[in-house]
Specification:
The complex is a heterodimer.
Chain A (H helix, E strand, L loop, with lengths): L3 H53 L19 E6 L9 H12 L5 E5 L1 H9 L4 E5 L7 H16 L5 E11 L2 E10 L17 E3 L2 H76 L1
Parallel strand pairs in A: 1-2, 1-4, 2-3
Antiparallel strand pairs in A: 4-5
Helix pairs in contact in A: 1-5, 4-5
Chain B lengths: L2 E6 L4 E7 L2 E5 L2 E5 L6 E5 L2 E7 L2 E7 L2 E6 L2 E6 L2 E2 L6 H17 L6 H25 L1
Helix pairs in contact in B: 1-2
The chains are: A alpha/beta, B alpha+beta.
Subunit structure (chain A): F-type ATPases have 2 components, CF(1) - the catalytic core - and CF(0) - the membrane proton channel. CF(1) has five subunits: alpha(3), beta(3), gamma(1), delta(1), epsilon(1). CF(0) has three main subunits: a, b and c.
Family (chain A): Belongs to the ATPase gamma chain family.
Keywords (chain A): ATP synthesis, Cell membrane, CF(1), Hydrogen ion transport, Ion transport, Membrane, Transport
Chain lengths: 281, 137
């Protein structure tokens, strides 16, 4: 049977752990609110941008832009957005699994976030570049990433660029996703698309596509980054809350055991005293 | 006859309702849009956007971006859109100064995209300032 001092020591250490996880939960909750707002704010813009691209996609055939060019080869570059820190539940594991299922093993990588960079290094995959993104995500950082992958694509080093990230659904649910970034695929199935199918372009088709497509690429990278950030903080908040709850439950159980032991020790002591008194009579 | 106008920026949805007409700062000059306009996609430069909403004329200072016009709908996608009250003169002046300093410090090997980005910041802030000063006097 464990003795009283051991139990007391365990209670103390579990209490310390609970305090730390609780602090981390509060920090994550505060960051989560900001990150979620940022992720949701961009959704309207993303949707309208998709709508516009879908509407004008029929005219793409006439004016091809280098960012739209579909190529035969299958050299793939994957932009992997994971987290810098751990303790965020199964977020990175799920993303790694998705990555293994949906991308070719010969692909090269651009990584954001330490966790999957380490995983990919262990598998001795080729990492082209690594970025560190501030929190909250500044648009300029997304531009730098988009610029690099666009450049590699336009130089013909890769035939396809995808993004692997965790899509933010809500606080309790995040979905790992692999989407194609380049060549730009025209969005389909956007319900709100207008039925007009003849569009004039001003100043010219090339100018408009030249303005919209890089913007689309920048924005898609940005949206993936803020989604990944929102997912990270949400997952960490939930994981830390679960840890705090577990620790509290554990403390309760240990306290109960401690009290039982204490009581039985007192009973034993009383018994000894009474027995001694009886013997002296 | 109504025209649906949506103005969105990456940060938030600025406006979404039916209006009577819209004037856009197109890359080649101002464009007036009335309902049943022909389909049009145009690049926008930093400037002023007007629309007639519930009988009154509203003006916003917008950044560069583009607009999609169809018969019943105008979608404006821009970096920023500010009403007169939201424009902070000091902040706009500071932004211009900062961007100009950065432009000046860049060498000849600077990336064209970075230069274009800084120039668009300057144009945007200048348009906002112009609008703010004109409405005050």
């Amino acid at each position: 049977m464990a003795n009283l001092r051991d139990i007391r020591r365990r209670i103390k250490s579990v209490k310390n752990t609970a305090q730390i996880t609780r602090a981390m939960q509060l920090v994550a909750a505060a960051k989560m609110k900001k990150a979620q707002d940022q992720a949701l704010a961009g959704r309207d813009y993303a949707q309208q941008l998709n709508g516009v691209l879908q509407d004008i996609s029929e005219q793409f055939a006439e004016a091809t832009h280098p960012l739209l060019e579909k190529r035969e080869g299958n050299r793939e570059l994957v932009l992997v957005i994971s987290t810098d820190k751990g303790l965020c539940g199964p977020l990175n594991t799920n993303l790694a699994r998705k990555l293994r299922d949906q991308t070719s093993p010969e692909a090269d990588y651009v990584t954001i976030g330490r966790k999957l960079r380490i995983t990919l290094e262990k598998l001795s995959r080729h990492i082209v570049a690594d970025f560190t993104i501030k929190d909250p995500v500044p648009f300029a950082d997304a531009r730098a990433v988009a610029k690099l992958v666009s450049k590699l694509f336009l130089e013909g080093k890769y035939d396809k660029v995808s993004i692997a990230y965790t899509k933010f659904v809500n606080t309790l649910s995040q979905q790992p996703e692999v989407v194609q970034l380049l060549p730009v695929e025209t969005p389909t199935g956007y319900a709100d698309a207008t039925d007009t199918n003849e569009f004039l372009f001003e100043p010219s088709t090339e100018d408009v596509l030249g303005a919209i497509l890089p913007l689309y690429v920048n924005f898609k990278v940005f949206q993936a980054l803020v989604d990944a950030r929102a997912s990270e903080h949400s997952a960490r908040m939930v994981a830390m809350k679960a840890a705090t709850d577990n620790a509290k439950k554990f403390i309760k159980e240990l306290t109960l055991e401690y009290n039982k032991l204490r009581q039985s020790a007192i009973t034993a002591e009383l018994l000894e005293i009474t027995t001694a008194m009886k013997a002296m009579e | 006859m109504a025209l649906q106008l949506d103005i969105v920026t990456p940060e938030k949805k600025i406006f979404s309702d039916t209006v009577e007409n819209v004037y856009l700062p197109g890359a080649d000059g101002e464009l007036g849009i009335l309902p049943e306009h022909a389909g049009l996609v145009t690049a926008l430069k930093a400037g002023e956007l007007h629309y007639q909403y519930q009988g009154s004329r509203v003006t916003l200072a917008i950044g560069s971006g583009f607009a999609e016009v169809s018969q019943k709908k105008v979608v404006v996608l821009t970096d920023s859109a500010l009403g007169e009250a939201e424009i902070d003169e000091a902040a706009a002046e500071a932004a211009i100064k900062r961007a100009e300093e950065q432009l000046a410090s860049m060498g000849h090997d600077a990336d064209a995209e970075d230069i274009a980005h800084l120039q668009s910041i300057i144009a945007q802030a200048a348009a906002a300032l112009h609008f703010k000063r004109r409405t005050r006097h």
